Request: fold
Amino acid sequence: MCKFKSIKPDEAKINPFSTLKNEWGLLTAGSIEDFNMMTISWGYFGMMWNKPVFGAVVRPNRFTYEYMERNSLFTVSFFPPEFKAELEFCGTKSGRDVNKAFETSFDPIDNNGAVYFSQADIVLICKKICFQDFDPKNFIDPEIINHYPEKQYHRLYIGEIEKILKKTK
Ligand SMILES: Cc1cc2nc3c(=O)[nH]c(=O)nc-3n(C[C@H](O)[C@H](O)[C@H](O)COP(=O)(O)O)c2cc1C
Reply:
């Protein structure tokens, strides 16, 4: 049985750039009875309104978007490198077509209504406190629009990081 300890955000030694770019994360919303997850490599670790926050950006066509809308909590799980192929799977298949929890080894755990995975080594437990849709009118850098050939502009969900769980063994 794996164990996690709860640490404070300022005790976490996470490099936001290398973690998102190289390791990726698994964004999960919903309850243990009904959840969905997808791989992310964009997002923000930071401070907002005096709170430690994680900003997740989700395109409206993702199945996970529906779960982010319906639920007040979300989690972001970060894994050791051996799970890259399974993260790739969760980042290319939709929960509309496959049950990603059945099709991968990811083993869900309930944390007071939020779901994370036993194989993670770091987990952010977040409470949604704000959302904001990207408006192409506000794209100053003309290259940004190239990320939206289908006009699926991200919704930014700012989550207050309520807890960080760190694997102890
Ligand atoms: C490395 C990687 C990073 C991704 N980052 C994001 C992201 O930050 N936001 C997003 O909306 N989709 C992102 N995606 C795409 C979703 O993970 C992908 O479309 C997924 O299949 C959506 O699953 P769903 O329909 O079950 O929600 C990423 C995919 C990969 C492989």
In short: Residues 4-135 form a domain with the Pnp Oxidase; Chain A fold (CATH 2.30.110.10). The mean pLDDT is 97. Strands lie at 4-7, 25-31, 34-40, 44-48, 51-58, 73-78, 108-111, 114-117, 122-133, 155-167.
